[in-house]
Sequence to fold (163 residues):
Amino acid sequence: MSKDVNLDDVKKLLELAEKHNLAELTVEENGVTITIKGFSAQVDLNTAAMEPVHHVLSHIEQTTQIQHSSQQQSQPSNDPEENLFKIESPMVGVFYRASSPDAPPFVEIGDTIEVGQTVGLIEAMKIFNEIPSEVAGVVVDIPGQNGKLVQQGDPLVVVRVEK
Fold:
């Protein structure tokens, strides 16, 4: 990085931290230090030229620290007799239940789904990633909230697996 760090360099660091699930990444060069912790960006800048980047990273940090009220709600039981399977988020990003605001959701509670069927999308770094079902069965719960930030491992859809 040069003294005039550009936003593309910062985005590359964020992508690197997310791709490798790094707990912390620190880069120091030419008097500029950037630290990314747990994909929550925190920046220690000692140059006024970096103020616009600091603003962007502060916004990212605030966004990634959102409390998930869905995690505090009651979750379906993991009783093996009920054969429930949680389709979890493979990454940090924003969960969407439909392909566009006007489109119907990919799945609803009560729908029968097949292996590989798309159950939602996760937007990460301006890229939309389809989330396929790993099992066939009936959707019994959708704890993933449309348009909300999810963390890796958060349950998105709960399926009662067909026997």
About this structure: The first strand starts at residue 24 and ends at 29.
